[in-house]
Structure formats: C-alpha cells, structure tokens
C-alpha cells in the first residue's frame, strides 16, 4: 500500500467568519492531491459550519480555545 502524505493545520484563535471564508474558499477551489490527507482543526464554535462547506475529502477536527480574545492559544474551552 502506498502511504499518503498528511497535512494538518489549525486556525488557532485568530481570524473571524470573514477570514474563515477565505481559508475555506482556498480549500474548496485549490487543487488537493488525492495522495494527501488534509485535515483542518477549527475552534469549536465554527466546527459545524466548516464541516458543512468543506469537501468531504478534507477532514475537520475541533480544537480548544483559551480565555483571551485572540492569539496562538489552544488551551481549554
């Protein structure tokens, strides 16, 4: 069996619904190699929206949040 590449990324706590749409649009329209597994981790408040609009071949995972407004935090919800 041929191994697939795995690419994962997360939103952290940066962004907004507008920024989310830019990222989503890139994943929807960008070429995704069938030999690469792509997974994105989003703050839990965006989980259902992102899963609904991304192609099924893109995995969606939840990430934690933190007590400050934004930044590179992924602490507890």
From TrEMBL:
<dbReference type="InterPro" id="IPR013785">
    <property type="entry name" value="Aldolase_TIM"/>
</dbReference>
<dbReference type="GO" id="GO:0005829">
    <property type="term" value="C:cytosol"/>
</dbReference>
<keyword id="KW-0413">Isomerase</keyword>
<comment type="similarity">
    <text>Belongs to the triosephosphate isomerase family.</text>
</comment>
<dbReference type="InterPro" id="IPR035990">
    <property type="entry name" value="TIM_sf"/>
</dbReference>
<comment type="pathway">
    <text>Carbohydrate biosynthesis; gluconeogenesis.</text>
</comment>
<dbReference type="GO" id="GO:0004807">
    <property type="term" value="F:triose-phosphate isomerase activity"/>
</dbReference>
<protein>
    <recommendedName>
        <fullName>Triosephosphate isomerase</fullName>
        <ecNumber>5.3.1.1</ecNumber>
    </recommendedName>
</protein>
<dbReference type="GO" id="GO:0006096">
    <property type="term" value="P:glycolytic process"/>
</dbReference>
<comment type="pathway">
    <text>Carbohydrate degradation; glycolysis; D-glyceraldehyde 3-phosphate from glycerone phosphate: step 1/1.</text>
</comment>
<dbReference type="GO" id="GO:0019563">
    <property type="term" value="P:glycerol catabolic process"/>
</dbReference>
<keyword id="KW-0312">Gluconeogenesis</keyword>
<dbReference type="Pfam" id="PF00121">
    <property type="entry name" value="TIM"/>
</dbReference>
<keyword id="KW-0324">Glycolysis</keyword>
<dbReference type="GO" id="GO:0006094">
    <property type="term" value="P:gluconeogenesis"/>
</dbReference>
<dbReference type="InterPro" id="IPR000652">
    <property type="entry name" value="Triosephosphate_isomerase"/>
</dbReference>
<dbReference type="GO" id="GO:0046166">
    <property type="term" value="P:glyceraldehyde-3-phosphate biosynthetic process"/>
</dbReference>
<comment type="subunit">
    <text>Homodimer.</text>
</comment>
